[in-house]
Amino acid sequence: MPQVEARPLSDDELQGIDAYWRAANYLSVGQIYLLANPLLKEPLRPEHIKPRLLGHWGTTPGLNLVYTHLNRVIRQRNRDFMMVTGPGHGGPAIVAHTWLEGSWTEAYPNTGQDEQGMARLFKQFSFPGGIPSHVAADVPGSINEGGELGYSLSHAYGAAADSPELVVACVVGDGEAETGPLAASWHSNKFLNPARDGAVLPILHLNGYKIANPTVLARIGDEELTSLLRGYGHEPYLVEGSDPAEVHQALAAALDACLDRIDEIQHEARATSPTRVAWPMIVLRTPKGWTGPATVDGDPIEDTWRSHQVPLSGVRTNEDHLRQLESWLRSYRPEELFDDAGRPVASVLDLAPGPQLRMGSSPHANGGLVARDLMLPRVADYAVPVKAPGAEDGDPTKVFGAFLRDTFVLNPSNLRLFGPDETESNRLNAVYEVTDKTWLANRRDTDENLSPEGRVLEILSEHTCQGWLEGYLLTGRHGVFSSYEAFVHIVDSMVNQHAKWLKTINRVGWRRPIPSLNYLLTSHVWRQDHNGFSHQDPGFIDHVVNKKAEVVRVYLPPDANTLLSTMDHCLRTRNYINVVVAGKQPQPNWLDWESAALHCARGIGVWDFASNDNGDPDVVMACAGDVPTMETLAAVSLLREHLPELRIRVVNVVDLMRLQDATEHPHGLPDREFDALFTTDKPVIFAYHGYPWLIHRLTYRRNGHDNLHVRGYIEEGTTTTPFDMVVLNNLDRYHLAMDVIDRVPSLGTRAVSTRQYFADQRTRHRVHVTEYGEDLPEVRDWRWTF
Amino acid sequence: MPQVEARPLSDDELQGIDAYWRAANYLSVGQIYLLANPLLKEPLRPEHIKPRLLGHWGTTPGLNLVYTHLNRVIRQRNRDFMMVTGPGHGGPAIVAHTWLEGSWTEAYPNTGQDEQGMARLFKQFSFPGGIPSHVAADVPGSINEGGELGYSLSHAYGAAADSPELVVACVVGDGEAETGPLAASWHSNKFLNPARDGAVLPILHLNGYKIANPTVLARIGDEELTSLLRGYGHEPYLVEGSDPAEVHQALAAALDACLDRIDEIQHEARATSPTRVAWPMIVLRTPKGWTGPATVDGDPIEDTWRSHQVPLSGVRTNEDHLRQLESWLRSYRPEELFDDAGRPVASVLDLAPGPQLRMGSSPHANGGLVARDLMLPRVADYAVPVKAPGAEDGDPTKVFGAFLRDTFVLNPSNLRLFGPDETESNRLNAVYEVTDKTWLANRRDTDENLSPEGRVLEILSEHTCQGWLEGYLLTGRHGVFSSYEAFVHIVDSMVNQHAKWLKTINRVGWRRPIPSLNYLLTSHVWRQDHNGFSHQDPGFIDHVVNKKAEVVRVYLPPDANTLLSTMDHCLRTRNYINVVVAGKQPQPNWLDWESAALHCARGIGVWDFASNDNGDPDVVMACAGDVPTMETLAAVSLLREHLPELRIRVVNVVDLMRLQDATEHPHGLPDREFDALFTTDKPVIFAYHGYPWLIHRLTYRRNGHDNLHVRGYIEEGTTTTPFDMVVLNNLDRYHLAMDVIDRVPSLGTRAVSTRQYFADQRTRHRVHVTEYGEDLPEVRDWRWTF
User: Fold this and answer.
1) CATH number of the domain that residue A79 is part of
2) Residue in A231, A446, A533 nearest the CB of B231
3) Element (H, E) at A634
4) Which of A196, A384, B54, B211 could form a disulfide with B126 if both were Cys (CB 3.0 to 4.6 A apart)?
5) What is the pLDDT at residue B402?
6) DSSP structural state of residue A515
């Protein structure tokens, strides 16, 4: 790995940078320890110390170093920078820096750049009612939480996309680097177009330790590490040391070299045509807990895992610890850094970039502020004509694909489609009429739809797709993630963290709501008959509805026009996680455009064309999801044929949250309206797309809940036919019809033979399917005819 | 990348190997297409073709090649091999091979090595009632499902651990290689001890394409790829080509070189002391869909993504396609490979290893067959003495740590502990008295508890930990995964797949139940007050209970002795996913050993010491989880002090599945017993560890369900104090007591002022905590005294 030999800093510059770094370090230690006496105007006493010491020192000095040096190059180059902070628990560093540069006070005016403000800054850290110990949504300039690790680099690439002037410096922790999502995301550089997109500068910070262990990358030797990073497509520059003056010079030189190289790459790509080159990156090897206590109670602390959290833990009761803390704090010479009123001195303040360029005020990092709404084509123009409900088939995702295609045309630089190699298989390929898949790696003549200019991002890593999309949304752009339903569980934990971030956006006043995270789950549980058991899991909905109601929406459009209407709506929203589950296979069109738009606006409603209850049903047949809707309507037609006296009401649910209590979810239906739809005393046979108990969990407070009988996926079925899938899970038309008969005793004796007939149909089907491998024609070719 | 120049195969050997490969390819294509006429005794007609063509050819010839060549080295070296098949949809290949070698017929006797058996083999593939298109639990010799991708390499390392004589050949697909879990797992070689463990031989199969895209690793050039693999700690050997004879020679030579090198590494490590070296691996670059149709309808198929699934899709209706299929099948010259009765000819059969060594019969891959039960120390010896309920504190995980330590001593080679750098922080460090953390990378003098011989595996990748553990369990050994509760969501989707695998073990007769997957979630939602919002998520339980009831168990032991009893039980079980949530912080010991063991055996029960209902309660206070139990008992003591006339029954739940209906879960309590505990008409205030609605979902069928009022985590709270966490989520003692007052109207007017008193205590607390940052002494020092 090359080390740059230049020493670009003059003595003055070096001193200035070191002072700035010391100021940040001082403010960091202050946050971890101090409840009062922020300027050390008097000797430290136990009552100045927080009662519970909760914070992490280990990673902090390294982050402070990077931020300080980035300030230098920002001022020098007068260029837009963001910093993505990957290492866990790096909160004190970025909080300190944003306060120093003034962006913290802008976001939180009661925490000014004075003694009282400093005291508040210190107290609130890891304190009840205050802020967490990692870089979180509370921290200006941040788009990445240092809690659950591994997403920094994919966030950085998402942020850089379509922002050609931006440089995203991304500090990757060597602990974080062991995670799968981070390991996969190094290859993001094959999807970054140096002409169209901004730059990402990864800074791998090897401080050597995690919580209680060394890190892998710090212990494989420089040769293997260099080889690895080159294999990832980078040219690494090594900065290593523990002498501050030396490291300052080395880091400044490395940053200059990297940024010069980035300029060169971009200039070349923009002047000619974009190709892939080895992007520069930095490996920064400095001690964990650098400049903190070297030893405490005889144990080595600095440069070991013991500096991970709070190096001196007994300061309130142990006089030695207290004195050691005081001299540690004073080692930064705060009296040179802050004036008597607690304000950073001018020579320090001068080193921060101006209000336009300081990283804590980056508009990119407060994406809601800069997001432009999408220009959407007139959605009605894409609707499929429906002469009669169920008379013809449509391909929902294909229909939406055309709408999405034209949306790409209207929004050439702030919309992307993400997916793990499934856009084609999910039938959204109309988008390839107007754009390609981004691809900077080698190409062959036989390749199709690959180019550096593509706006579709496909890599076989749901983690990377999700991380890119989050980075893109958090910086104020729009996107759709199209995935197999079962495998979106791969990003369950990322969704958790994003939901928490969205909740925090709503809580901190200065952040503005960002474009919603839109999932289109098109290869769903009922149409994985060819892929089998491993591809069948509808539980993502269950996972998502546990999140705060204010940020979660779930839609199950039953056909093409309802999918169109739903997606048109989702693309207009902000600060939600929209989960849309819809089929990619041909299936009946039920509603014409006008009915579809109305039905989606209501979210739930009676389907009059299928009902014969005249306001007084014997049974309510409810359905949510495309396949359950079709099976329900098929059951209704069977029942109406065989038991014409039975009064059936069909209720279709598009917006799943309508089922919940109005006090639990903003979309929740008032009880009166719920009762009017479902009755309070009639049996309700509910055919649901996913795990049936979710419907019970959503409706347990409803009046008619005890009459609710839900069918859904019960982990049965594997490779088989589409209809056999529903049979194996008791969601098929015959079983639903039998459920009705079982619950409407007034039907009398005729129903017994009808029930037996339905049961026999199930048996006939099973015999046929296992022998011939396809569904019986009366099922395959079934059409709603009433 | 070196290519080995030797040509180790004689002409006879070469022909034999090619014939074996052709036989496997023929059997693979047959599975995808044929319903009848398996030996092509007559010209192909449409009715010989399956009505729905569901299968994947693309990856198959490469997998067939590797399996064939592994057979050669197995016979030559007379050594134990397993093959882990990473690429998706590789089912036809491994099914074909196991049938050829005889292991398929051993598992499925009605699919014999004859014409009828071959016809059955073909029909069942991707057919209703048959087997899926990927290598799954149905396939003998497999421990890895090719459905959700990315876990092959970590499974391989888990399988190799503690099996010194075993070589695990792991084919990694180049699509799969893009996933996070796979990318992270390359570093597993730093955790493999060449003296104690077996070897893993990764074979990266670059066939170049995924579903509709090229793969990243196939398009970065040989130099970068070589650099990457060296950076992962491997010495790669390149085998490349499309001429079968050339590739046979090259692959044979590369395998010889790799296995010689593995012998050398192991010999050296076993003779001296284990150190880390660059393990050999193979990069196999052959065309996707090799030997299949070169073009179809004018489009290139072989060596493009178009060969991913079914290259000829119109065979039933398109005469050209049918003829093309027939000549494709005949190109393998089946008449030379199978006799008239459909049995593979002797010259083919001779190339398969004998029954002891053929990979489809590997006892490692049917772990339940070879698993020895753990030797467990007498658990009562580790119990903490409890003079009176709640009188003293205990550290549950620390108490269990001692038991686990001694379990390690009794089981020196079939037990491992897995975790993402949290064993120490989760207070299980007693284990370090008898073992270390496995570490083969560089070490420093200041390191602690690291050695090649360690039995604790820590890497900051939940995916890798989970993959290793699954591989270890699937090959018949035992393990515990200790993780932060919030971050175990990272492996949600892996848990899904493992649960599906366990269900399939129960279904296919020849697999034996494997040791259970045991989760100890110790840093749970209520004790993340220092780590904040991002670390707070109890939803893993919700995720797991959606899986098949026969494989899922959830336990919430409320103190040290109940945790001991629970873990002692879990370590004895097979084929379950056991989720145990327990605290690592000091907390009251409630039950002495005898009571704890009895309570855990029942799974749910009245706590008489805390109840004063004399069989006729005014209210039932139920609790599940350590913190909810403490808050409930604190609420009870408040209520008994302030409202002594109130008759309270306390019910504690350890085994969460007891709440469910007996028809829904094998642990479900019969209704009579449930009613006896909870009553059918009295209010039940239920304090639950996780999201409250899960309790409603589990109990919605119960008689008293409408009286149930559940408190739990509602996504509130961040960095604060432990007690403030419960306050913010309305789970605190005061709120629970207020809930009781609100629901027992018979309490009369005195209760009004008591209620106000409790409400005031909550306010006092909040004021104090936000000012001083710690809980009020009466909460901090609270003790059960009744």
Assistant:
1) 3.40.50.970
2) A231
3) helix A626-642
4) B54
5) 98
6) B
Which chain A positions have a beta carbon within 8 Å of B437's beta carbon? 213
Mean of the per-residue pLDDT values for chain A?
96
In this complex, do A228 and B227 lie within 8 Å of one another by their Cβ atoms?
yes
- Is A595 part of any domain? no
Same domain, A711 and A615: yes
Task: For an interface test with B, give the residue of A492, A508, A686, A723 to mutate (most B CBs within 10 A).
Answer: A492
Query: For A84-142, how does the pLDDT look when each residue is reduced to its tens digit (9 = 90+)?
Result: 999 999 999 999 999 999 999 999 999 999 999 999 999 999 999 999 999 999 999 99
Going from the C-alpha of A209 to that of each of A229, A364, B413, B455, B534, the distances in angstroms are 19, 31, 29, 20, 22
A580 with A624, same domain: the answer is no
Contact B548/A769, CB-based, under 8 Å?
A: no
For chain A, give the percent of residues with pLDDT over 70.
100
> Which 25-44 residues of chain B touch chain A by CB within 8 A?
35
A322 pLDDT higher than 80:
yes
Q: What is the pLDDT of residue A621?
A: 98
- In the predicted model, is pLDDT for residue A748 greater than 90? no
**Phi then psi dihedrals of residue A201, to 5 deg:** -115, 95
Residue A2 has pLDDT above 80, yes or no: no
Number of domains in chain A: 3
Same domain flag for A335 and A387: no
Same domain, yes or no, for B185 and B38?
Answer: yes
Query: Which of B532, B553, B588 is where one domain is finished?
Result: B588
Sign of CA dihedral A176, A177, A179, A180: positive
In this complex, do A129 and B770 lie within 8 Å of one another by their Cβ atoms?
Answer: yes
Q: Report pTM.
A: 0.98
Please report the pLDDT score of residue A643 as a whole number: 96
Q: For chain A, how big is the Rg over CA atoms in Å? A: 30
Tell me which chain B residues have a C-beta less than 8 angstroms from the C-beta of A686.
none
Within 10 A of A591 (CB to CB), how many other CB atoms are there?
26
Q: Which residue has the tokens 């088939």?
A: A393
Residue B593 is assigned to a structural domain of this protein: no
Residues of chain B found within 8 Å of residue A725, distances taken between Cβ atoms: none
The answer on A296 and A200 residing in a single domain is yes
Band of the pLDDT at A749, cuts 50, 70, 90? confident
Interatomic CA distance for residues B773 and A223, integer angstroms = 48
State whether A769 and A642 are in the same domain: yes
Residue type, B268: E
Residue A90 has a pLDDT of: 93
C-alpha B510/C-alpha B507 separation (Å) is: 9
Lowest mean pLDDT among A54-58, A193-197, A248-252, A328-332: A54-58
Spans of chain B, pLDDT less than 50: none
pLDDT of A269: 97
Tokens at A34, concatenated: 């101090």
Cβ neighbours around A6 below 10 Å, total: 12
Q: Which residues of A touch B700 (CB under 8 A)?
A: 693, 696-697, 700, 705
What pLDDT sits at residue B202? 98
- Do residue A228 and residue B225 have CB atoms under 8 angstroms apart? no
For residue A646, give the nearest of A510, A746, A777 by alpha carbon. A746
Q: Are residues A172 and A262 in the same domain?
A: yes
Q: Let me know if residue A366 belongs to a domain.
A: no
CATH code for position B641: 3.40.50.920
Q: Note whether residue B537 is domain-resident.
A: yes
pLDDT of res. A3: 78
pLDDT of residue B167: 98
| Pick among A307, A691, A719, A767 to test the B interface (most B CBs inside 10 A) | A719
Complex ipTM: 0.97
B360, B392, B417 - which closes a domain: B360
Pick from A439, A495, A487: nearest CA to A466: A495
What is the span of the domain harbouring residue B533? 379-588
Q: A650 and A773: one domain?
A: yes
- Taking only the tens place, the pLDDT of each residue in B702-716 is 999 999 999 999 999
B345 closest CA partner among B39, B567, B55, B624: B39
